[in-house]
Amino acid sequence: MNATAKVKIWTAGDWNAFFGFGTNILVNLLVLTGLLRFVLKMPDEIVFGRILPATGLMLFLSTVYYAWLAWKLALKTGRNDVCALPSGVSVPHMFVVVFVIMLPISLRTGDPVKGWEAGLTWVFVQSFVLMLGGFIAPYIRKVTPRAALLGTLAGVSVAFISLRPALEMFITPVLGVVCFAIILAGWFGGVRYFKGIPAGLIAIAVGTAVAWTSTGMGLNYGGMSLGNVAGALANFGFSLPLPAFGHVFSGFEFLGVILVTAIPFGIYDLVEAMDNVESAAAGGDHYPTTRVLTADGVISLVGCMMGNPFINAVYIGHPGWKSMGGRIGYSAATGVTVLVLSWLGIIALIASLIPVVAISPILLYIGMLIGAQAFQETPKSHAPAIVLALMPHLAAWGKLQIDNALAAAGTSAAAVGLDKLGDAGVLYHGLEVLGGGAILGGLILGATASFIIERDLPKAAAFALVGAMCSFVGLIHGEAIGFGKSMPVAFSYLAVAGILLISAKYAKCADEEEPEKEVALIGEAVVS
User: Alpha carbon of 328 to those of 22, 28, 207, 440: distances in Å?
Assistant: First the structure.
């Protein structure tokens, strides 16, 4: 009872963490709203009437649960400095599900609702990977080089997170480049803005001011209009999330495409969650890993069954919020605020006031950070393996650009002819094969190369053998799941595994020859 009385739900430091973390969550909500409306062309009644209320429910459940978990830890330890784990929509996955799953399916079918349904099924699959994968995640993390895990994520970052925002910024540089400078100075340069206001919020405010000023001058940077604001006001109203079971199971018609990314990204989620729990433990707050992973899976499943196509994840940054003074209350308060904004349609108004290009620099920054992490957090010698892991993603991005351009012209690669494309220097079939299942393919290529660099050829052969099996069933280098989908590639991986095993048994590596050379040179010196 005494311990209960001592635990404080709210402290003065929670205000700092609430505004900082709340701004972070708000920016992410604005980003995903922009992706849904302007990239996927999703109808507003679905965005503001179905998806955002479901997303708000998921975020509320997540932040309140982790506040409760922090309260339980504080009770158990009798400490008042316990900080809740930060959580929210997984930012890398937000872009992956939009650009790799929802957008291609929306374009192929001509129906953004089909893209939404595929996104729901993607989260459905990932939720079970999270819930069940806690048993195998430590083993996967143990046997897979970090260069492979981070390298394939860097590929997603460069191709599907960074490129589009960079292009948008330079289409409207008066907005995009200026906002980018503010973000770089704040988040990379350590510049502290007025009263500690976050750099992202400053950038959005400046971009919004420039956009509306230019609209008043007739230049119209950012595409802002009072008509959009009036339309957003029409979205005001109480919107409860509604069950979307039918939409979730309708997306199963795209299961072959979904599994290629949902399973490897679910595995990545496991590793990321473990890393973030370990980070919190290093800061003195020891949370049970299995419970965290299960919670992320269950909460994501609830969200997707209500219409939310974005996965929930524990965020990195627990030590930062704790050092800022955040304890238990900041997490729950953020969840309640998000629930109010999303259920009352207020996010629609905020989105109509802020130009998308003012948010693009934030996305580019995130992409830069994720891409750089692959090189910063791995051995220097593994850099070539990271570059190799990037290649499938660049191929997938290139194929997507070609497909979209040809579709806009009312044709396709098959109609134009692969020979004609090849004569023009476009190796379309190569992009198609290399880019198939890019996330898992990049991981396998990166792991194989990493072990070769480490001169551990048997382990490299093992990953090449996994590549052969994955190619055979279409998980990588194929357009669909099924037996014998990519036989030439499967045979090639099998040959690589054989060559590496033979080399490991019979060939000498350079480092084994060096001592022999040194002995020979010493012998020659003695004789002379």
Answer: 14, 22, 33, 37
Task: Indicate the helix (H) or strand (E) that contains 270.
Answer: helix 255-282
Tokens of residue 403, six digits: 């497909």
**What is the three-state SS of 449-478?**
HHHHHCCCHHHHHHHHHHHHHHHHCCCCCC
Do residue 373 and residue 386 come from a single domain? no
- The angle formed by the CA atoms of residues 209, 352 and 356, to the nearest 5 degrees, is 70
Nearest partner of 358 among 200, 159, 189, judged by Cα = 200
54-93 burial, b at 16+ Cβ within 10 Å, e below that, comes to bbbbbbbbbbbbbbebbbebbeeeeeeebbbbbbbbbbbb
Q: Of 293 and 338, which is predicted with more confidence?
A: 338
> What's the distance, Cα to Cα, between the start and end of the chain in Å?
87
The strand pairing partners of 528, in sequence order, are: none
User: Does residue 387 sit in the same domain as residue 361?
Assistant: no
In a domain, 526, yes or no: no
Residue ranges making up the domain that contains 427: 381-516
Tokens of 385: 């393996």
Q: Are residues 35 and 80 in the same domain?
A: yes
| Same domain membership, residue 398 and residue 271 | no
- Decide if 320 contacts 187 (C-beta within 8 A): no
List alpha helices for 306-355, DSSP H.
318-323, 329-343, 346-353
In this structure, what token pair is assigned to residue 5?
């009385």
Q: Which class for 440: exposed (0-12), middle (13-18), buried (19 or more C-beta within 10 A)?
A: buried
| Cα–Cα dist 150/138, whole Å | 16
Residues 175 and 301 in one domain: yes
Q: Does residue 12 belong to any structural domain of this protein?
A: no
Please check whether residue 378 is in contact with residue 386, taking contact to mean a CB–CB distance below 8 angstroms.
Answer: yes
**pLDDT one-digit tens code per residue, 15-50:** 877 876 887 788 789 888 888 988 899 998 899 999
Do 389 and 347 lie in one domain? The reply is no
d(CA 300, CA 269): 12
Positive/negative CA dihedral, 28, 31, 36, 39: negative
What does the pLDDT look like over 300-351, one tens digit per residue?
A: 999 999 999 999 988 866 777 787 788 999 999 999 999 999 998 888 888 7
Contact 267, 135 (CB under 8 A): no
Closest CA to 292 of 82, 508, 86, 71: 86
Tokens of 347: 């996010």
Number of domains in the chain: 2
Checking if the pLDDT of 117 tops 90, the result is yes
For the beta carbon of residue 417, count every other beta carbon within 10 angstroms.
Answer: 11
Q: Which residues pair with 88 in a beta bridge?
A: 313
CA angle, corner 95, sides to 433 and 380, nearest 5? 70
484 three-class SS: coil
Q: Token digits for 98?
A: 């939009």
- Amino acid identity of residue 323, one-letter, is S
